Every structure is written in structure tokens, then in C-alpha cells.
Amino acid sequence: MLTTLTKGLVIAAIAATSMIAADKINGAGATFPAPCYYDWAYTYQKATHTRVNYQSIGSGGGIKQVSERIVDFGATDAPLTPKELDAAKLFQFPAVIGSIDVVHNIPGIADEKLKLKNSVVADIFAGKITMWNDPAIAADNAGVNLPAQKIIVAHRSDGSGTTYVFTDYLSESSKTWKSKFGVGKAIGWATGVGGKGNEGVTNLIKQTPYSIGYVENAYKEKNNLSAATLQTAGGKWITARTANFQNAVKQAKWSKKDSFYSSLVLQNGDAYPIVAATFILMPREKGDVNKEVIKFFDYSFRNGDAAAVKLGYIPLPVETTNLVREYWAGK
Questions:
Q1: What does the DSSP assignment read for 119-147?
Q2: Which domains are seen in the chain, by residue range?
Q3: What is the pTM for the complete model shown?
Q4: Are 161 and 77 contacting, i.e. CB atoms less than 8 angstroms apart?
């Protein structure tokens, strides 16, 4: 028979176990927003004593783990369609916005000095243009010392939302790319070497002279990589800078009805061509856990803008975060 003291210890142990369970949120997925989520998680833990454990494993992994209910939330740069969300019984909302930069390691050519038409980028990644001094590249780069060196393409080796967004851009830029390769989190690359995560592609670029690849802007900034100057949808040359990313964000047409399913690539006006939101996925049946996940992102929406900007991301506009809160309230 339990004594009063023993009963008290048992109750305390149960309470402590419940508190530990409630004080930890597990998420996994996209590498694209990982630096931002790490910063937000650190700040949130300091303020609330709730730990957010996020694993940067790629969008494909995030979708798989949340669909199998291994984690409390998944993260993906490739939004799921309403039909896919219904099949997996998931909710979806945007969390932060970033850009994908076409980065290179060409000795002697600095950041923003190399101009690449969107169609030329597609031809490079399709293996059609193989040399840095190819006439198609030289035509837009008078005065730039283009080397007679083979182009080494670096791409993702894992299921990747970054790849999904990048191939969406390539498909919009080139009919040949669209018909031959299409859009996807993983595709059959015609050429190049693969790296896991944005981290893997970043390291390949840093270590490989004459390489070219695609990474989220935060990785470009943190690692001092050089990015190509690309084109707007109208053909104007444009650099990978915050104001140009924001011009794309301003044109986003979000809707609660379709769980914010949308593309931001090649928007009109002075918009950088490869901009994307990254999304959070939550199981529909886990109401209490979802409330904890929502608390984290609501806190981050209110307090995390400065950190997002510092890391090279674009915070969601106030109008969008308000729309997300309305979406949460209706679930």
C-alpha cells in the first residue's frame, strides 16, 4: 500500500513526465529554412522553456515523417496540393520566405558580375551548355574573363523542396526543360554531382572550382558565395538582394481555401525570379500538439522578423500572418 509520501512522489513523477513531454516539440524537413528555424527555436526556448527540436533532413523527409506521424510538424519548400493534404490528413501554412540563388565558384569572377539568362541557366543544368566560355554565356558578359573550363554542375542528391522550386523556375524559363525534365523534388539530372541538403551543395561549390549550383540565399550569404545576376520575367537583369525578393513577395496571392498552395517564381515587375515560401505541415487529428506548434510559430511571427532578415530571409507580410492565424482558428 502506498504511503502518502510515496503517492506524492508518484504524482510528482507523472507530472514531471507530462511536463517534459509538453515542453518539447519535434519537427523535421526542409534545409532551406533551417537556419531561421534554429534561431527561432533558440529564442522561443529562452522565452518559454519549450524546446523545439528541428532536424534538417530535406522536404521529402519532412513530408514522409509527418505523414507517418513520427514528428509533430513537417517542413517543405514544395507545397502540397489540397488533394495531397486531404490524402495525408494534413494542415499546411507558410512560415517564412526565401530565395534560391544560382551560385558559382569561378576564380576571378566576383558576386553579381556573371550574367546568366534564365534560359541559359536551364541549358547549363540540362547539360546542353558545358563550357564557361560558351558563346551563349559570353554574349551577355562582355569584359568578363570567362575561362575555357568545363562547367561542373552541383545539385541536390536528396528529395528537396529547394529542387522543386528551382525546377519550377527552370520549367517556366525553358520549354525544353519542362518537356524533358519537368518539376519535382527529385529528378533525373543530365549532368553533375549531388550533395545532400543546402549544406551539401554549398560545400560542393566552395570546394570545386568552376562549379555552379543552387542554394537558399541564407547559405549563400553565410558562406560568402558568389551569385549570378539573373533576369526578371520581363527580361531585366536583377541581382539576389532583399528588395528584389520582397518585390516577388508583394505579388503573392494567398488563399486559406487551398491551404496557401502557391508559386512565387517569375513574378511580374522588378521581382527576383526564384523566390519561394516554405511551409509547415501538421497532422489534422493532433489538436493538442498542434496548439503547441502553433504557439511556437505565432511567437516567431511576432518576434522573429529581425532574426529572419539578418539570416537572409523575408518575413511573411503582416497581412499574410493574419490570414494564417485565421486559418489556424478555423481548424
A1: HHHHHHHTTS--BTT-HHHHTT-TT----
A2: 24-98+253-262+276-329 (3.40.190.10), 100-249 (3.40.190.10)
A3: 0.82
A4: yes
